[in-house]
Amino acid sequence: MKKVIYTTAIIGASLMFQSCGNSSGNATDTSDTSKMAADSTAANEAALSADTANMEGLIADTTFASKAAIGGMAEVELGKLALNKATDAKVKDFASMMVNDHGKANEELKAITKSKNMMLPTGLDQEHQAVMEELKSKSGADFDKAYAKAMVDGHQKTLALMQQGSMGLKDAELKGFAAKTAPVVKHHLDMINTIEAELK
Questions:
Q1: Which of 17, 44, 150, 191 shows a CA-CA span of 20 to 30 A to 134?
Q2: Which CATH number fits the domain that encloses residue 80?
Q3: Domain of 169, in residue numbers
């Protein structure tokens, strides 16, 4: 009888220790699961943040390319118009420079964006089209002055675009294009500022 009681006590104690051991194991498992879930959440948030940054960078690059393309096209088209309508020799020379310089820049931008499957606008936007229509309605000295003013305004905007692009774009080729083009646009702006002042 004593042996039976003793054996039962040992079995009971063993079961109690085993139960405690399993309880401790479950706590560890739960802790590990929580840690894994936290790590997974952090990884997902990091990936989402990276995706968002990449998307914002792509949008910025595409917006830059689009604005640069429209601005470049406008300089060429307005330059061609000025070659036909301008009366001042310096205005005509400047217009010729616009056709050549911005024509080359436009081709360079097209090559860069084509390699990245970026779609560029094929025509002027409403703002530049309005400038074109206004200039078409003028002639003689009035045209020269209006063209010079349009060139000052346009080059101020383009210079700001190129300077921002040279610092903030994600794409290395577009960033390089902006950095390379900014001094050229600055030179154009200085020239047309002088010409505009002489026309007044």
A1: 191
A2: 1.20.1260.10
A3: 59-199
Q: Does residue 4 lie in a domain region?
A: no
Residue 39 lies in a domain: no
Q: Does residue 24 fall inside a structural domain?
A: no
pTM for this entry: 0.73
118 pLDDT exceeds 70?
Answer: yes
The answer to whether the Cα torsion of 159, 161, 164, 170 is positive or negative is negative
**Tally of domains in the chain:** 1
Backbone angles phi, psi at 93, to 5 degrees: -60, -40
Span 13-49, pLDDT tens digits: 444 444 444 444 444 455 566 666 556 665 555 555 5
Q: CA torsion sign, 11 to 15 to 18 to 24?
A: negative
Report whether 98 contacts 188 (CB < 8 A). yes
Nearest to 158 by CA among 125, 112, 189: 189
Quick check: is 97 in a domain? yes
In the chain, the amino acid numbered 49 is S
**Encoded tokens for 53:** 């940054």
- Per-residue pLDDT of 176-196, as tens digits, reads 999 999 999 999 999 999 999
CA pair distance 117, 119, nearest whole angstrom: 6
- CA–CA distance, 126 with 136 (Å, rounded to integer): 15
